[in-house]
Design brief:
The complex is a heterodimer of chains A (436) and B (232). Chain A has 436 residues and is an alpha+beta fold. Chain A has 12 helices and 7 strands. Helix content of chain A is 64%, strand content 10%. A 5-stranded mixed β-sheet of chain A has the order 1-2-3-7-6. In chain A, strand 2 and strand 3 form a beta hairpin. In chain A, helix 7 runs antiparallel to helix 8. Chain B has 232 residues and is of the alpha/beta class. A 5-stranded parallel β-sheet of chain B has the order 2-1-3-4-5, with helices on both faces. Chain B starts with a strand and ends with a helix. The chains are: A alpha+beta (436), B alpha/beta (232). At the A-B interface, strand 1, strand 2, strand 3, strand 6 and strand 7 of A face strand 5, helix 4, strand 13 and helix 6 of B.
Amino acid sequence: MSLFLDSMLRFLSSPRNAYVICIFACEVVFSLGSGFRRYPGVRPAWLPVPVGMCIFLLVGFFAPSPFVSKYGASFLTLSIFVFSILLQRVVLDLSIWRLVFNNVAAYAVENLTVNVSEVALRSSALTGWGKLLATLALKAAVIAVCYFLFARKARHQEIHIKKPVLIELALISVFISNFLFSYFNITFTGEVRQAMRIPLAICCFLMLEVQFTTFRDSSLNQEKEVLEKLLFREQRQHKLMQETIDIINMKSHDLKKQISLLKNRSDADPASLISEVEKAVDTYDSLVDTGNRSLDIIISEEKLICNKYRIPFDIMADGAALSFIPPEDLYSLMGNALRNAVENSVKEEEGRRSIALDIHRAGEYICIEISNYCTQSITLSDGFPVTSKKDGRFHGYGLKSMEYVVKKYGGNMVIRYQDDTFTIKILLPKKREESA
Amino acid sequence: MIRVAIVEDQEETRLELQKLITRYGEEKEINFQFTLFTNGVDFISDYMPQYDLVLMDIDMPLLNGLETAKLLRKLDSSVSLAFVTNLGKYAIAGYDVGAIGFIVKPLNYATLSVKLQRILTKVHEEPEPYLTVSSKAGMVKVALADIYYISVNGRYVMLHTKTGDIEDHKSMKQMEKELETHDFIRCDNSSMVNLRYVTEINARGAIINGQAIPCSRSGRKVLMDAFTLYLR
């Protein structure tokens, strides 16, 4: 029995195996919360997870290492890093970039645990099982702390970090530090080596901070973009109101002129005069009635402009279906879509302009479709039109604003350009689930 | 060939519409077959679903366009319907009867052709496609419209249809290739769904007949986009 325990102790204490166990624990911690990939015919569906774990441990413990130079340990850890990413790619439902991010973090945490435990147990007199258990406990504690500091918040969030930055992080955190630390371990021994541990531990901790700060920053950048879009929306709204007021002023001036002319005519038939005035006023009398007052106002504004530029605007809208959307979001969604259609239609030759708006309920969803005839070829990149205006930063924000609102209500937006028709199709689920 | 029914009380407009659409057909090499009606009552009495597109005038005596359309929808929920009108205010009620567009009088070819282009993308004129299935029981023909979803069954696939489950001796990859232009989406390694029967897409997956078909992260995005464009 004691023979078994002895060989167990030796097995678990060997540097390689200790490394494998530790990096395994770190990788698991940073993979928490992600889904696993499903494969046809695999039952139960979560089987790849424990199988993957076993494969990792077996390969980690027993696979022969071809690298026997003094940098052997260094090559081993790098191979395990790459192997981990590939294995996780097969088992987990995550993109390669997310896996790179997770494993870079796991790598740094493992490094940190080693340095911390070495420093803490430096002057302890523990040996054998006592030492092993104390080391494991310390490492577990460090991993737990890192989980709460770093992994927990990043768990369910998407990676927004640009790929070159991710590669840079991976290179520094893993590859360069790997060689650096190996160099230290080989070149220095005894007291010097121990003394190096503290700065190395701090180094690891800082690398983790940098990695997760970059992660947080990229999310903040997203938010900043959103705020800029909101600002753009407000500016556009102001401009729109100006145009509308101008049109109305012009028309009311015309009307006043008409009325004064009529006042001075004594020979005309009163009935026909009145009907002339009625006709002029008619253009502005309840332009649209979709069953949603806010939507009516948004559409009316655009319809006025369409009338001015002679753009046929077909409206088939069940406005009541959108009653759950507050006016400002409705404006972001519909105002931008329609303004986009108008701006594009104006570029077409007169007589060959057409805008259509369709809002109706279909099963569990509300379908919104805005289409306009458009002969200038539009190329889509990543689902959005490639911008050509020299407007700079603000161009394309109209559509992005729309997407933000659509996502807020748990819907989906797709843009299509086919047969000279530019279409924005939106689905919003009837059950209102808002996600901030 | 697209079978068009024109329901319009004014003869001039009726013939003008037919002329302009024929001209459009010549330009785009589409064959149109017309059936003309002078009022809603004639159109709706003895109505048989034999048209791909109905152009309905709104302002007609006896039974106006909207009322006729409501009766039409009771008999035929899938034929494409577009209103012909010079009354802007009626434009809004068209969604009630699932109208796909408006043609506003006075007619002019340029505007009409632009409208037709959009309307025709939604008019289905192809006959129902079939799939030839080779299973243990021999060769069977299955209508694509009858398939709810397809799942992997060992080396082959299982078609889950209205009339039951049928095994097909093809791999999922082959199936994907064969159905790539027919509203079937591969949402997962082991499943392909027919957009026609998807009622909802949520965290559980694609919902067909109350059953949830699981979707992978990337598969869900592809499915959601296709579903967004598909849903009418």
